[in-house]
Amino acid sequence: MDGTTGGPLIETARLAWRDGQPVSEQFGDVYFSRENGLEETRYVFLHHNHLPERFRELSDKDTFVIAETGFGTGLNFLAAWQAFRQYAPASARLHFVSVERYPLGSADLERALALWPELAPLARELAHNYPQPLSGCHRLVMDQARVRLTLYFGDAVEAFDSLEFSADAWFLDGFAPACNPGLWQDRLIRQVREHSHRGTTLATFTAVGRVRRALSDVGFRMERVAGFGPKRDMLRGVLEQGSHRSAEPTGQILVVGAGIAGAMVARNLAVRGYQVTVADQGESPGAGASGNPQGALYAKLGVQLNDQVRLALAALLHAQRFYPAETPEQWHPTGLLMMGYSEHERERQQKFLRANTYPRTVLYPVDDQKASDLTGIACPQGGLWFPRSGWLEPARVCQSLLEHPNIRTEFQFRATRLLPCNNRWCLSGEGRQDLVADTVILAAGHLTRQLMPVTGEFRIKAIRGQITGIPSDRLTAAPRAVVTGARYLNPPADGQLVTGATFDLRDNDPLVRTNSHQENLEGLDSMLPGLLAPRIKPTDDITGRVSFRCTTHDYQPIVGPLVNGEGNTLGGAWLFTGLGSKGLMWTPLMAEYLADLITGEPLALPHSLTRRVHPARCLAAARTSESPA
């Protein structure tokens, strides 16, 4: 990859293999010591940051944060992960933040790490989750959510300007200063200080005086110590100024809503060790908009690569990693065709392809014949094929997510009001005892606004959507992949295929209507002519379901602190709503980000994307320069 293509694709590392070890052709330097790279990592970074001792001292639910300036082969990360498993208590968590301008391709990464058989189980898990070569921030969750890796593909200075974290230890790696002087510029040294706190340590294989002086100038007490193997010297340091890093208090956590948003954030917090109560007015999980029998996982990516597209792409890729790992029984990886169903959509897709280059593992164009081969039905048009997408069973996903010993559920809890009481939050319900918590998350879809204890107008709305269930024998053929366009169509499940959904503005009717079925059938017939059996009617064994999507003025989610009409935050209260029709896509990454905010851990989103989802933007007085999706 030459780095000149449009879109998010990033140039990967060009390697030469000498005596079985990787050497960077971009910088003319080795990735690790020829004597023993793993022992060098343990000596330079683990030993001189005192990590075994510090890991042993961690308390229940503590998170230890390591930051690194060059991910390279991932060897340093794996060595730290291995030591964390060996020394840290089982309830503690490791968060590793790293940046790489020229990421290794997957095959090169696996080849490099194969040099260390004792790391093989960890290396396999890293390789399985390793991001595709797309610029920006990637959040990987591994080791049963005990280990998180925030990996930024791009320039280091850009990364540390964008990311929110405070490191307990630094691995200053990334080729010798003489080979890669850009990495060691003064701005990056200042960023190391900005992302540190009193007691933060650092270590680096280099002993260059300029680097030592720059780190001393920003407050680190530096010392030169013996290097590894034939290398005479290296540097280590500790920050003796500033304040200590403190975790955010959470206490008892209450989630209002057991749809995909509420279930996802409850599970995320539960696996981090927190006790969570989930309250919902329904009789079971997914009683609202998350209760449809099938839901497609996909994103409609814009032509121009902007923050809106980056957010959707990051969410899609994270979801494609999450569901196979966490809810495999409810995940159906069939692939998905985004059909060029109209002249306008075909033109849009052509502009998209001219302006962007994506890895084929994300998407690629197909003609009508290839589309027909992939989906198993006659497709009059080609489109964009998403090989790692598919469909899910939303209500069963919600049920699966809530099955955790740290989660308690309160169903048929019809919430009436949420009020602050004695520095806590109190949720009242019809005929039920109040629920009291230190932290509350409103994830009640279109009902969220009714429970927000604030004045002011928020630009959120409910949109009626009716789906149509068609018996398999009412189609001339059944697709084996998801097809989206004017309508979507999922492969059969339990003898039915789901299509839809209507998009009914200013319509509060909760009942299934024949005219909405007719609209769905006509839209499907227009997109895939001849697929419906002749003379099928909306009353012919057709089933349906109505739900109300919650969406925003800019069609982006609402994730963050509860704000009042003046834009001031209310401590301990959070919002997670506005997911529209893409809840399955948004929720894994957005729940990860929200849990980071609540617990004070490194954030999964860079600053440019946190602004896209902040609740304050939805105040009626707020204005945004972004156009709706």
From TrEMBL:
<dbReference type="InterPro" id="IPR008471">
    <property type="entry name" value="MnmC-like_methylTransf"/>
</dbReference>
<keyword id="KW-0285">Flavoprotein</keyword>
<dbReference type="Pfam" id="PF05430">
    <property type="entry name" value="Methyltransf_30"/>
</dbReference>
<keyword id="KW-0511">Multifunctional enzyme</keyword>
<dbReference type="GO" id="GO:0004808">
    <property type="term" value="F:tRNA (5-methylaminomethyl-2-thiouridylate)(34)-methyltransferase activity"/>
</dbReference>
<feature type="region of interest" description="tRNA (mnm(5)s(2)U34)-methyltransferase">
    <location>
        <begin position="1"/>
        <end position="240"/>
    </location>
</feature>
<keyword id="KW-0808">Transferase</keyword>
<feature type="domain" description="MnmC-like methyltransferase">
    <location>
        <begin position="117"/>
        <end position="239"/>
    </location>
</feature>
<dbReference type="GO" id="GO:0050660">
    <property type="term" value="F:flavin adenine dinucleotide binding"/>
</dbReference>
<dbReference type="GO" id="GO:0002097">
    <property type="term" value="P:tRNA wobble base modification"/>
</dbReference>
<dbReference type="GO" id="GO:0016645">
    <property type="term" value="F:oxidoreductase activity, acting on the CH-NH group of donors"/>
</dbReference>
<keyword id="KW-0949">S-adenosyl-L-methionine</keyword>
<feature type="domain" description="FAD dependent oxidoreductase">
    <location>
        <begin position="253"/>
        <end position="597"/>
    </location>
</feature>
<dbReference type="InterPro" id="IPR036188">
    <property type="entry name" value="FAD/NAD-bd_sf"/>
</dbReference>
<comment type="similarity">
    <text>In the N-terminal section; belongs to the methyltransferase superfamily. tRNA (mnm(5)s(2)U34)-methyltransferase family.</text>
</comment>
<keyword id="KW-0560">Oxidoreductase</keyword>
<keyword id="KW-0963">Cytoplasm</keyword>
<keyword id="KW-0489">Methyltransferase</keyword>
<keyword id="KW-0819">tRNA processing</keyword>
<dbReference type="GO" id="GO:0005737">
    <property type="term" value="C:cytoplasm"/>
</dbReference>
<dbReference type="InterPro" id="IPR029063">
    <property type="entry name" value="SAM-dependent_MTases_sf"/>
</dbReference>
<comment type="function">
    <text>Catalyzes the last two steps in the biosynthesis of 5-methylaminomethyl-2-thiouridine (mnm(5)s(2)U) at the wobble position (U34) in tRNA. Catalyzes the FAD-dependent demodification of cmnm(5)s(2)U34 to nm(5)s(2)U34, followed by the transfer of a methyl group from S-adenosyl-L-methionine to nm(5)s(2)U34, to form mnm(5)s(2)U34.</text>
</comment>
<dbReference type="InterPro" id="IPR023032">
    <property type="entry name" value="tRNA_MAMT_biosynth_bifunc_MnmC"/>
</dbReference>
<keyword id="KW-0274">FAD</keyword>
<dbReference type="GO" id="GO:0032259">
    <property type="term" value="P:methylation"/>
</dbReference>
<dbReference type="Pfam" id="PF01266">
    <property type="entry name" value="DAO"/>
</dbReference>
<comment type="similarity">
    <text>In the C-terminal section; belongs to the DAO family.</text>
</comment>
<dbReference type="InterPro" id="IPR017610">
    <property type="entry name" value="tRNA_S-uridine_synth_MnmC_C"/>
</dbReference>
<protein>
    <recommendedName>
        <fullName>tRNA 5-methylaminomethyl-2-thiouridine biosynthesis bifunctional protein MnmC</fullName>
        <ecNumber>2.1.1.61</ecNumber>
        <ecNumber>1.5.-.-</ecNumber>
    </recommendedName>
</protein>
<dbReference type="InterPro" id="IPR047785">
    <property type="entry name" value="tRNA_MNMC2"/>
</dbReference>
<dbReference type="InterPro" id="IPR006076">
    <property type="entry name" value="FAD-dep_OxRdtase"/>
</dbReference>
<feature type="region of interest" description="FAD-dependent cmnm(5)s(2)U34 oxidoreductase">
    <location>
        <begin position="256"/>
        <end position="629"/>
    </location>
</feature>
